[in-house]
Amino acid sequence: MAKGRHSRLPARKSSSTMILTVLLMFTFVILILLALGILSIPSNSGDPSRKANDLSTIVHNKVDRIEGDDGKREQWVEVISWEPRAFIYHNFLSEEECDYLISLAKPHMQKSTVVDSETGKSKDSRVRTSSGTFLPRGRDKKIREIEKRIADFTFIPVEQGEGLQVLHYEVGQKYEPHFDYFMDEFNTKNGGQRIATVLMYLSDVEEGGETVFPSAKGNYSAVPWWNELSECGKGGLSVKPKMGDALLFWSMKPDASVDPSSLHGGCPVIKGNKWSATKWIRVNEYKV
Ligand SMILES: *[C@@H]1O[C@H](CO)[C@@H](O)[C@H](O)[C@H]1NC(C)=O
């Protein structure tokens, strides 16, 4: 017994020394990280004139900037609005990827339909005059790469996405303002409600074809591109289609209720052609 107690004492002493050493080293590492700017201490030094919970500003600032290397176009994420929560990821797709999606879809384009809110079935409609087709999830390597990138951008797993829908709008074609979330039981059986939408522009549009949010809160005439917008585009917060850009907006708020400020439409194309690809994302796994 006595022998045991003797041998235990120095052991306890050395283990407490070790804990101290580890703590000191940890503190040292944290200090180095802080000094190098890898870690930062959160501060509340935002705009003091902005009230907490006031989301009504059209934000429009660049939050992250990644310098493009090897000749790739610069990629950055821009917050354009908090009500609805909407973000533009610039140069999300390469030109090759845009052309690839168009070439896959082109032979299969059909007149677009809308969801009948009473039956939940698809129906023809005058509010949506584009043509489109679905590309199944995980169809090939290129599509899987794009779908992985969407999952990284949205923080929502690939499995919660529907297939990509490629859409084509010719001059005069449009999609009247609508919600992406469902009001019926039928469409939410697989995957539940739609939580977010990633809309990728596969072509530039010379005039018109903006994605417009007519119910966006804030002074949407303050966007820098205001003078380039069509009459329809001036009816709300508008995003001009630009090849490769991806628009992410949320149909649901963080409290899981649907967000009516996510009302959005596709303005009529005035000049040129509009190609886009849409990824609708559900709250649960979407089985294909
Ligand atoms: C909205 O923004 C525009 C452009 O910055 C400005 O001229 C206008 O006065 C603003 N309107 C309001 C109501 O703040």
From TrEMBL:
Record-given protein name: procollagen-proline 4-dioxygenase
PANTHER family tied to this protein: PROLYL 4-HYDROXYLASE 10-RELATED, PROLYL 4-HYDROXYLASE ALPHA SUBUNIT
Listed PROSITE patterns: FE2OG_OXY
Transmembrane parts of this sequence: 20-41
Reactions mediated catalytically: L-prolyl-[collagen] + 2-oxoglutarate + O2 = trans-4-hydroxy-L-prolyl-[collagen] + succinate + CO2
Gene Ontology molecular function terms on file: iron ion binding; L-ascorbic acid binding; procollagen-proline 4-dioxygenase activity
Fe2OG dioxygenase domain residues: 160-283
Source species: Manihot esculenta (Cassava)
Region ranges (Disordered): 113-134
Cofactor or coenzyme needed: L-ascorbate
Record has Oxidoreductase as a keyword: yes
Compartments reported by the entry: Endoplasmic reticulum membrane
